[in-house]
Amino acid sequence: MADQDLAPQPSSWATLPWEILSLIISHATDSAAEYVSYRRICRGWGRSLTDYSPIRPLPSPQLPFLLLPHHDRDPRQPTPHIGNVFPLPFNPSRVPRSYDLPQLKDTEGCICVGSSHGWLIALGQDSSVSILNPVTADSLLLHPLSSIDQQNLSFHHNSFPEYHLMRRNIWHSQSSIVRRAVLSSDPAEDTNFTLLLFISDGINCCYTWSGRAGPWIKHVHSKLLVEDVISIKGFFVAIDRWNQLVFFDFRNRNTGLVLTPFTIKHDLPSGDVFLVNSDGRLLIVLTSHFLYPSQRVLPRGFIKVFQFQANPIEFHSRELKCMQVMEHTDHALFLGHGCSVSVSVRHFPQLTRNAVYFTHAYCRSELVEGEEGRVLPLYQGAVYRNIISADGMSESIEVFDVENSQYAGLWNGQRPFWVTPSLNRYAQKTAPWHSLCWEILSDIILKSGTETAAKYVSYRKTCRGWRLALTNNSPLRPLHSTQLPFLLLPHHNRDSQQPTPNIGNVFPLPFNPSQVPRSYDLPQLMNTQGCICVGSSHGWLITLGRDSSVSLLNPVTADSLPLHPLSSIVDLENISWQYLSSMVRHAVLSSDPAEDDHFSVLLFISGATKCCYTWSGRGGPWIKCLHPEFLVEDVIFFNGMFVAVDTCNKLAFLKFTDQLNTGLDFRLYTEFQKPPVQHIYLVNSHDRLLVLSTVDPIWPGQSHIRGSFFSISAIHVNEKVGRISVEEVVDLGDNALFVSSGCSVSVSVRTFPLLTRNAVYFMHVFSDLIISEEGGVVKLVTLYQGAVYRNVVSAETIKVFDVENSQYAGLWNGRRPFWVTPSLNRYVL
Fold first, then answer.
1. Do 179 and 148 reside in the same domain of the chain?
2. One Pfam match, by short name (predicted)?
3. pTM
4. Are residues 395 and 462 in the same domain?
């Protein structure tokens, strides 16, 4: 009895820390097949793995296994069920065996229509669509297929799993409703994943569902009978029955980019065609062989592999290259429509190098009672291997055969799928990011490649918890003192002459030639509808609302500060929004409001040439300051005072004599006068005041211009004698300038070596006459070309990037873009 009392009580696996659990797994699971088998040791062990599985996979390279449909004694009338995993017994000493995964126990009434990134795409009898990880049991329910705009489909459950089509068609009669289904990425790693469906009866359209939720989106395209489709480098690539490649880009919800088909020429009889993503290379595998159910070994067949250069830049320029691959080096291919996999034999030496593993499908005509003859795809219960040879001919042999087992003859379109296991967890139960101390968070940021605010913005979008942690715990000082400016574009509207007021698009410059220009819709700006940006200064935006409200907004940290409305200084009765939106000519800050409580806001109002308005960070109303007549072209804050330049190249220095900005010292200097120029900009370049004048015009259609585009001068102020001296600048040294009215920036190329030294980056502004819709009146408007140019001083002007063909082409009606030098400081009231 005493011995029984002293017996140790068993402890739950879940009480062990994850470090110990992962150590056990790392010594016991060389592949996901063993991982699945090992977690079935006992109920507690399997539960502990489910609850504590890490965000990253344990073994990184995984050998795919074969997912077989649920077996029924009558294979012609199978009970829909996803439930059998068949790891390949590449070890000859092992007997082929299958696992009935408990993770798939709730799939009764479902069939698998696709396998991608370790997840299964399942279709239910009620047309429900879901994605399921067969290893971790994570699942995500999508919108049902009955919600799509396809009127030729019948969703009566009696026709399941085929889903009989209402319209009889020689191509698609009685075939499965989902022809191909594929994911763009692992949903556990990318919440913005996309699911692409090709419907059997929809040869002129496809459907996508975004991980951000929402309905199915229909995309119309030219006639395309898809044989295979995969995702690679952000694109979906499909190949049709006639071996034409088509590229789809659904990364922007509003567009589905379809490029001109590219035909693969070959000398094989008609057969199967597969697409494979092999370490970023797109491979096309063409096969031609015949197999009859009674044959145990394939006759001599033909397999050809083509390598397709999959470079996104070449996709856009439609420069498509194709070359035949004689050998696939140290890789082995597992072929299956929508689920092909490339595996390195270095990780799995039991595989045969330069080999192709595949299951075989053949067709047979069959008479069905009460219906016309139909063609049924039958899947042989075996896996074959074919070695790629120089002449494209080799012997296909069986790796294993389950003909005499319960899996013999997989009928009625329920084909097997290759599944590359993903041990990533979806919606992982972890501690929130904000529970970490700021020292750890900042260390993560500094070691994660966020040297620029563009990367910082992208990185903080990884998950909501991460973003909240940065917002709540960010320190008062910046993480990175020097920041590369990004371009803030106005919200796009299809009618560019009547845009919807909204501040919402950040466009980091792709100074790295390998990067494709992309934009971010910042969630921090989601509440800016009805507002426009009238200025950018010290990383903050000065915004103007329809109700004449004025506010400051940091587009990175989402901090905001409301100011007094514009109606408190200007009579806006009966003023239209079109006039109000152009009323503020220039707006600039004296300093970063997060660093200086005594900052000032300076406004120049259109038409008011003898006064300006200031607002102090200490509060109070707008202060009107009178000065001599001066039509401001640009204004910045420099060395404790505001510096402005007018259209006649006169310089004015505005210095307020008290902290409430009630007194103004206005000094006008005419020594800088030059012949009139097209545009003029002021820049604070490392405590040196530079004036840039444009001397040559540029037209929107041109990308190269000969000659010196900018004339640059350095201004030296001698306050004792009340004079300035002007020095011509012919070389900016290791600096690059980003110029635009009120928001010009100087950046050192030592900090950002991707920039060009001694260069000026600028946007083009030009004017045009248009006919107004109101009475046909001709008026002059300011247009902003959707491009950024670069001019090396006294050299050629070239286009850095152009968004002419994107949604940002033609920025009209004074809605100009702004350079924003990010401030990661937090504003504290």
1. yes
2. Beta-prop_KIB1-4
3. 0.46
4. no
